[in-house]
Specification:
about 120 residues, alpha+beta, Immunoglobulin-like, 2 domains, five-stranded mixed beta sheet
């Protein structure tokens, strides 16, 4: 039996199979670990809501939001940088589109919503 035949037969033994399994686990496990450590996952915006969606000029609407996996969350216009979860009262004078932006490293996500401002109804 030559050297190469001995090598092939070793990898078919229980010890050889165990070594292969450990090598594969180390390779894939280390790759997934490195991906989690060095990779930057996209942030997720779970919720961005306004209540009510239609207000009279200067009246209040409550913005609420929830974000996962972001290092920075901001709402434009007028609100600025915020926590991952929270709410804020806004008082738009005219119909306004609000944008929430969630940033994690060089990746970001954003969603917009519009609060409509209408004239009060006459009785």
């Amino acid at each position: 039996m030559n050297y190469w035949e001995m090598q092939r037969s070793f990898w078919k033994t229980p010890v050889g199979i165990a070594i292969w399994a450990l090598l594969l686990a180390a390779f894939f496990g280390g790759g997934l670990l490195a991906l989690n450590i060095f990779g930057t996952p996209y942030p997720v915006i779970e919720l961005f809501h306004a209540d009510p969606m239609v207000v009279s000029p200067g009246n209040a609407s409550n913005l609420s939001w929830g974000v996962i996996g972001a290092s920075l969350v901001k709402i434009d216009p007028d609100v600025g940088e915020v926590a991952l979860r929270g709410s804020a009262v806004v008082r738009p004078q005219e119909t306004t589109t609000y944008r929430i932006t969630a940033v994690n490293g060089s990746t970001n996500r954003s969603i917009t919503l519009k609060i409509m401002v209408g004239e009060p109804e006459q009785a």
